[in-house]
Amino acid sequence: MATVEVVEQMAVGDGLFSLRFRSPVDLRLAGAYHPGQFLHIRVSDSFDFLLRRPLSLCKADVSRNELTVIYRAQGEGTKRLSRVRAGDQLDVLGPLGRGFPIHDGDRHALLVAGGIGVPPMLELAHALKARGQQVTAVLGFQNARHVILQEELMAYGTVHIASDDGTVGTKGLVTDLLTDALCTGVNRYYACGPTPMLRAVQAAMQGCSVPGYLSLEERMGCGIGICVGCVHPIRRGGDVKQVKTCKEGPVFSSEEVVFT
Amino acid sequence: MATVEVVEQMAVGDGLFSLRFRSPVDLRLAGAYHPGQFLHIRVSDSFDFLLRRPLSLCKADVSRNELTVIYRAQGEGTKRLSRVRAGDQLDVLGPLGRGFPIHDGDRHALLVAGGIGVPPMLELAHALKARGQQVTAVLGFQNARHVILQEELMAYGTVHIASDDGTVGTKGLVTDLLTDALCTGVNRYYACGPTPMLRAVQAAMQGCSVPGYLSLEERMGCGIGICVGCVHPIRRGGDVKQVKTCKEGPVFSSEEVVFT
Amino acid sequence: MSETTPVDLSVDLLGRTLKNPVMPASGCFSFGREVAAYYDLGLLGAIVVKATTLEERQGNPTPRLAETPAGMLNAIGLQNPGVQKVMADELPFLRIFEDLPVIVNVAGTAVDDYVEVVKQLTLSPDVFAIELNISCPNVKCGGIQFGTDPQMAADMVRAIKAVAHVPVIVKLSPNVTDIVAMAVACEEAGADALSLINTLVGMQIDVDRRRPLLANRSGGLSGPAIRPIAVRMVYDVTERVRIPVIGIGGIMTGRDVVEFLMAGATAVEVGTANFVDPLACPRIIDELRDWCVQHRVTSVRELIGAAKEGGLRDGA
Amino acid sequence: MSETTPVDLSVDLLGRTLKNPVMPASGCFSFGREVAAYYDLGLLGAIVVKATTLEERQGNPTPRLAETPAGMLNAIGLQNPGVQKVMADELPFLRIFEDLPVIVNVAGTAVDDYVEVVKQLTLSPDVFAIELNISCPNVKCGGIQFGTDPQMAADMVRAIKAVAHVPVIVKLSPNVTDIVAMAVACEEAGADALSLINTLVGMQIDVDRRRPLLANRSGGLSGPAIRPIAVRMVYDVTERVRIPVIGIGGIMTGRDVVEFLMAGATAVEVGTANFVDPLACPRIIDELRDWCVQHRVTSVRELIGAAKEGGLRDGA
Ligand SMILES: Cc1cc2nc3c(=O)[nH]c(=O)nc-3n(C[C@H](O)[C@H](O)[C@H](O)COP(=O)(O)OP(=O)(O)OC[C@H]3O[C@@H](n4cnc5c(N)ncnc54)[C@H](O)[C@@H]3O)c2cc1C
Ligand SMILES: Cc1cc2nc3c(=O)[nH]c(=O)nc-3n(C[C@H](O)[C@H](O)[C@H](O)COP(=O)(O)OP(=O)(O)OC[C@H]3O[C@@H](n4cnc5c(N)ncnc54)[C@H](O)[C@@H]3O)c2cc1C
Ligand SMILES: Cc1cc2nc3c(=O)[nH]c(=O)nc-3n(C[C@H](O)[C@H](O)[C@H](O)COP(=O)(O)O)c2cc1C
Ligand SMILES: Cc1cc2nc3c(=O)[nH]c(=O)nc-3n(C[C@H](O)[C@H](O)[C@H](O)COP(=O)(O)O)c2cc1C
Ligand code: FES
Ligand code: FES
């Protein structure tokens, strides 16, 4: 945990913000961060917002030791966060949790993300590309005003887009884009987004027998494994257990994840 | 009630601040304000500080339509208030309550105040002087670093000072300065300060038969007479009743005020 | 936005249609006179005035108030001018406001006191209903014993119903193991409606002076801090009683009203918020209307009990 | 400042001297392993671990958490690996910390469950004391019935005392009409200490989805919002019992600890604050030391009950 300085806050779409701040840990250290991890952020020192908000690590700038998150200001807490300005202090815990494992034998990775599930894909794409993998991204948004990171992701590979109202890309859901053709040659997929999307992606990709990872979204109290609030049913061995997503997740092997 | 703009916030002593802001009411209107009234101020929009803080009207600048309060940042709420800066918005209710009555027949008024009871004396001195009265002020402070408004008050008349540790003025209490000689020729006194001081002033001035007014300090909920939290025992007719200091005070005739 | 839309904010309560479900809570609005300087009280759904006792009371010594995280403590101790003066000097003033039902909160020490106050109030043309305060935590024998024992509460309600010609709302205390049992006892004894919650008993220590901050030592906790407790009690009580329930506790915004309505309340009372902002009630009414517009709700009646498993609650 | 001053923070609890009166509360620290990555747990006065039941439990479905004004609701539902695994896999880890008394919170459904868990724990060299959780509001039959009826509480305490070779702390629920009666019943039945309060039952409505936000519908309210309620209960209980009381509820700072001590608590547990800040406990200990320095208090024992009329409370 540390109080760090905000470097920049920027609107990046309809109610969407990009927040860049000094990293609370030295990013040059081995294992300091990993794509798919999250930052646990206090949006204000007021008790009105007692709990921290989990936001995915979107970009790590190692040379400047800065981190970026991209988030939607939807509830009161993230709205308050959107008032923070360059120079302000920010109370940040993390990077926390287990991110997306990268398999060195893979050659082609498919990233599937919806809405505010897109941000962690940027750092992931960066890491995959750095390891020599081909990256294809399939992104879903409500509409054109909610599109984020499209161009940034195009720097790493092909980007396909679906939107609920068809104002950008194909009209429909991300899963509509997960055709057999698209999945051919893909070694592994990585998905992040709202639970209904993850459930649909899990089913679709099981259909074409590509293994993958899901980043789950549960309400978090502590972010460090002490409140047991953030659990999700995970199948391991024969048993399904409630596993803490902040500590053992938020990323799990797709086949482990049970949707009830 | 209104949200007004802060014009200036300034440190004026050890933990003491002067805060100037646009008046929530048009000060040119008759009866818009009166010395001895107070402003009821929300120090933050956080529920951490749910209640407003009552601060005395210290100075009214009619031409600019600005009000000034001077306060000690002692508890958490006033400390938070001291973080407010020029340009910020401030939620201010008032001016509220009944201030110091001015009697046109009087020729010489004695102002007695201790610590953060001093601020309302400035606007009062201004009003008395404007009505042609001679003004003498007797002020008590903890020590030299807590002195406020000495020079400003000297513009209206003689100022005597006492301090607890003798680092400024006479060592001792304000009441030590209330000698017969000082009170000679005084038609009326006006006092504001902590309760023990007011009790002592009431006794001392009763001794030399000078009538006067006391501005009482009770914890306030609403400031407008609806919570009945701010009462003080007041003798009227034969009865002692708990009277709302926010609405019928904070200023009362000295002889009415009962200290228990 | 709020002006032009056709949202119906009215709700039915005790045989009358209220313009909207928002009323100031007892003890948080005095008798209305002071706030009338800030807005037209005719905007309110109804008004609940300060606890009224048989004789005048001076209440507790000061300090009577403390601030707490997202809340406050009070130990006013039922200061009021007594029922005679309330009827003669206070209630008639409220006649000038159009269609403003007046609910008088009644407190006392023994059943006889309460009965006597109600006997007098029930004759007043100014009184729409009585709210029995059997739950004030701030006075020794201030009625809280009636508020914590179902049998005593029922006896009290029966005694009052025997003399009241106006509807009787019973205001429940949250300082009980089983508020549902209290509610059921009051309903069975003939209560026309229930209101909940009164304050929770709390204390703050003045660590510098090494003693309880309030002169009365303990006080009643109110404000947003207690809202989750109140919402749960409204939800649970409305699962079990059929009479209407008025939700109270920490309401600061129109969204908070929606929360109480969805939990099963037919109307709400707003307390502490009036201290923070004298314009709280009309602002909350506007926010409620705006919320309905944004969520395509044409009548707030649709919201009553909407969060319940069985669906909507009968609003009356 | 804190390093060089000779403030004695130690207090005596159940025959042992704790370095300081601050310990993490049950369910807010898991079994210590995670926080051990943030600081040396040997800094703590003691540690209270998560509720332990006879068999492993998976708890309630999610959402299990909600944020409220100055507080939060939780409905974890006693998720834990069961007493066998707790003793085998969790408690031994805590041996590496110097002088760290371990208190195990015990929960169950029936008296027999509790007895069985205690029988096993009492044999462990790792257990300093047991905290009987007869007050969890989040599980049907999660023990709260024992926490609201003095007779049932007393029977439970007697059954546990008959098998426990370690001290027994009884953790009381605030969801009762008369917490003093509960406290007295537990003391008379042989409890060695009391801890209070557990969470208050609360609810939040998700107004967009029109249903209670928590999957369990209601949950337990904790955090600064409840502090005044907790302080009052500690004050009232310590007026009537002689056994030590551990104060719990909304402690966020060293000053809050002072408030509980002055109200009569011998030690405190810190819950929700650990979620906001993993370093909360050591920070609070530092703040407590600083407060003592500033107020010329040489031993925190001087503060225990200092706000009471009769003066200091016997600390042990
Ligand atoms: C591991 C993880 C990574 C995330 N990464 C991102 C991201 O990169 N960008 C982004 O915009 N959002 C992300 N989210 C979702 C984000 O945490 C929520 O949108 C945010 O917490 C909502 O807070 P609020 O103040 O807007 O809402 P409020 O309703 O005020 O929040 C109240 C409480 O509920 C919690 N909460 C409400 N909605 C959610 C939700 N959908 N998920 C989890 N907790 C919730 C809040 O954290 C808070 O504790 C992530 C969530 C998780 C679990
Ligand atoms: C009519 C009136 C005029 C005042 N004028 C001034 C002034 O001009 N300058 C100045 O510095 N102070 C003045 N005070 C005192 C000032 O209101 C308190 O110092 C201030 O409210 C303390 O708030 P806090 O946030 O520092 O303390 P906290 O301890 O955080 O306050 C907690 C609660 O207690 C109340 N409270 C605490 N101490 C006092 C107190 N001494 N008097 C009244 N309420 C208190 C607060 O208003 C708040 O509701 C005046 C008080 C009154 C009643
Ligand atoms: C200062 C104050 C005085 C109160 N006086 C009364 C009263 O006289 N009668 C009563 O039934 N309730 C009284 N209450 C309780 C409120 O009516 C209400 O039930 C409680 O404050 C919870 O609502 P809130 O959180 O909106 O304030 C009082 C509350 C406060 C804060
Ligand atoms: C997430 C969470 C889990 C809890 N689990 C337990 C538990 O297992 N056993 C128990 O006795 N109390 C449990 N509690 C209650 C706390 O120990 C404590 O009594 C309560 O939270 C009040 O303290 P606080 O306001 O400091 O959090 C839990 C509280 C929270 C917030
Ligand atoms: S958020 Fe607390 S255990 Fe995961
Ligand atoms: S402060 Fe509320 S009546 Fe005076």
Identify the notable features of this structure and list them briefly.
heterotetramer; A: 260 residues; alpha/beta; Elongation Factor Tu (Ef-tu), domain 3; Rossmann fold; Dihydroorotate dehydrogenase B (pyrk subunit), domain 3; 7-stranded mixed beta sheet; 6 helices; globular; C: 316 residues; TIM Barrel; 4-stranded antiparallel beta sheet; 9 helices; 16 strands; binds flavin-adenine dinucleotide; binds flavin mononucleotide; binds FE2/S2 (inorganic) cluster
Give a short synopsis of this structure.
With 260 residues, chain A is α/β, with parallel strands linked by helices. Chain A has helices spanning 76-81, 119-130, 150-154, 174-177, 180-183, 195-207; strands at residues 2-13, 16-22, 38-42, 53-56, 59-61, 66-72, 89-96, 108-114, 134-141, 157-163, 170-171, 188-192, 212-215, 231-236, 239-244, 251-253. In chain A, the strands form 3 sheets. Chain A has a 7-stranded antiparallel beta sheet. In chain A, strands 11-10-9-8-12-13-16 form a 7-stranded mixed beta sheet, with helices on both faces. Chain A has a two-stranded antiparallel sheet with strand order 14-15.
